[in-house]
Structures are given as structure tokens and as C-alpha cells.
């Protein structure tokens, strides 16, 4: 396999930052997140300040859920 050489011009930092995002469906990570939260896994706390992007609909549902009374 031939290796391709790339010329570094110093402006790749923006491209690299954008490449760090991985789109996933909630169904792909829901079980792992629930398990990590339930058992208070340390790695979940390590990512506590990470920003995630969710749809407006999911945000509305989560907001309503957080404001519901526990017995409702």
C-alpha cells in the first residue's frame, strides 16, 4: 500500500477539531450511559463537562421529565 504524503500548512486545527465528533443514535449509547450512571462509574464523571448536541424534541422531553414530580 502506498502512503500518501500531505503538506502541513498549519491550518488543519479547525479540520481536526471538527473530525472529533461522532454522530450516534441514542439507542446505541443509552444502555451504556444508563449502566454507568446506575453504578456511578468514574469514567462518566470524567466526561461531565463534555458538550453534547441533541435534537430540540429530545431537549423538550428531557426538560419536562426533569420538572415532573417524582410520583407523577
What does this structure look like?
This protein is mainly alpha-helical and 72 residues long. The protein has a domain at 24-67. Helix content is 51%, strand content 0%. It has helices at 13-19, 26-38, 42-46, 56-67. The model has no long low-confidence stretch (mean pLDDT 85).
From the spread of the alpha carbons, the general shape counts as elongated
Q: What's the end-to-end separation, in Å?
A: 62 Å
N-to-C SSE series? HHHH
Number of helices, counting only DSSP H or I runs of 4 residues or more: 4
Radius of gyration, taken over Cα atoms and rounded to an integer in Å: 19 Å
Low-confidence stretches: none
In terms of quaternary structure, the protein is single chain
Roughly what percent helix? 40-55%
Number of strands: 0
Biggest beta sheet attributes = none
Amino acid at each position: 500500500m502506498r502512503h500518501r504524503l500531505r503538506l502541513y500548512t498549519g491550518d488543519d486545527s479547525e479540520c481536526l477539531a471538527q473530525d472529533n465528533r461522532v454522530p450516534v443514535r441514542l439507542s446505541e449509547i443509552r444502555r451504556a450511559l444508563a449502566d454507568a450512571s446506575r453504578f456511578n462509574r468514574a469514567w462518566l464523571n470524567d466526561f461531565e463537562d463534555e458538550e453534547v448536541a441533541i435534537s430540540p424534541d429530545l431537549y423538550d422531553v428531557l426538560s419536562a421529565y426533569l420538572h415532573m414530580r417524582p410520583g407523577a
